[in-house]
Amino acid sequence: MSVQEVSISTAITVENVRKEFVLRHTRSLKEALVWLLRGRRGDLSKKFDALKNVSLHVGQGETVALLGLNGSGKSTLLKLISGVLQPDSGSVRTRGRVAGLIEVGAGFHHDLSGRDNVYLNGAILGMTESQIDTMFDSIVEFSEIGEFIDTEVKFYSSGMYVRLAFSIAVHTDPEVFLIDEILAVGDEPFQRKCIAKIKELGAAGKTLFVVSHDLDLVATVCERAVLLEHGQVIMDGEVHDVVTELRRRSAES
Amino acid sequence: MSAAEAGLTYPGRGAGLRDVYRNRFLLKLLVMKEIKVRYRGSALGLLWSYLKPGLQFAVFYVALGLFLNVQGSTPNYPIYLFAGIVLVNFFTEALGNSTRSIISNRDLIRKIYLPRELFPVASVWVSAVHFLPQVVILLIVCFFNGWSPSIWQLLAVVAAFAMVSVLAVGLGLFFGAVNVYFRDSENLVDLLVMMVTWASPVLYLWSQVEHVLGRFFWVYQLNPMTIAVQIFHWSFWTPTLNQTQAAAPAAALVPGLVPFWLPVGAVISLLVLVIGQITFSRLSTKFAQEL
Question: Is residue B290 one of the residues assigned to a domain?
Answer without folding.
Answer: no
